[in-house]
Write a structure and sequence with these properties.
Length: 214
């Protein structure tokens, strides 16, 4: 019998790292990309309906290539007042559920999505936790013979905030554009490799947004 081990990296990174404290200030390799996350609305004082805006700005000296939708390479990480360190529980942590797998983008769509961001230029997107959000699902499966099978696709995902949570910390990350074990599948999805697209291969983290029910 073949046993398969699956490792997934969702557009919202919801693993044990979500229970670890992250620095509150933003950070970027070589100061190239500044990421700013802000709460723009909290309807009915409900964490499940929180709306946040992510703005990324090229603060380097040269143009970089990014996904205009801020999906490829980007993720959110969460921590609630219920979260336990180094472990994760659906009853205590924010979870993501795949609602709809998206179709592969056409060549024209790929050309429009990956844009050159000149120094000083910005891109932004809004996350609404009450609605499905576009996310990347990437990772790999490995069998007992240590043969690896990467995967990469995009999906609409719905977040679930534990109803008992009174406080939530959120930050955004950019991680190399694509996970190293899914580079071939990235190319299958977009029709070009990350290198051919010129996707920025650095790392960056936003500030941490703290949202509390009152």
């Amino acid at each position: 019998m073949r046993t398969t081990i699956v490792t997934m990296l969702l557009g919202a990174a919801l693993g044990a790292v979500a229970a670890q404290a992250e620095p509150s200030d933003s950070w970027s390799e070589d100061g190239v990309l500044t990421m700013a996350l802000e709460l723009v609305a909290l309807p009915d004082n409900d964490l499940q309906r929180a709306q946040m805006r992510l703005t990324v700005t090229n603060t380097g000296t040269s143009a970089i290539v990014l996904d205009r939708t801020l999906a490829a390479g980007f993720s959110l990480r969460f921590k609630t007042d219920l979260s336990a360190e180094f472990t994760r529980s659906d009853s205590k942590d924010v979870t993501a559920r795949e609602v709809k797998r998206l179709e592969k983008p056409t060549a024209a769509e790929v050309g429009a999505r990956f844009v050159r961001l000149a120094p000083g230029q910005s891109l932004s997107r809004t996350y609404d936790l009450a609605k499905p959000n576009r996310s990347v699902v990437e990772g790999h499966a490995s069998d007992m013979e240590s043969v690896h099978y990467g995967f990469y696709y995009e999906a609409m995902q719905a977040y679930r905030v534990p109803p008992e949570a009174k406080r939530m910390e959120v930050d955004a990350w950019y991680e190399r554009g694509v996970w190293m074990m899914a580079t071939a599948q990235f190319e299958e999805w977009f029709g070009q490799s990350a290198e051919e697209i010129g996707l920025w291969s650095g790392r960056a983290r936003s500030n941490t947004v703290v949202i509390e029910r009152k």
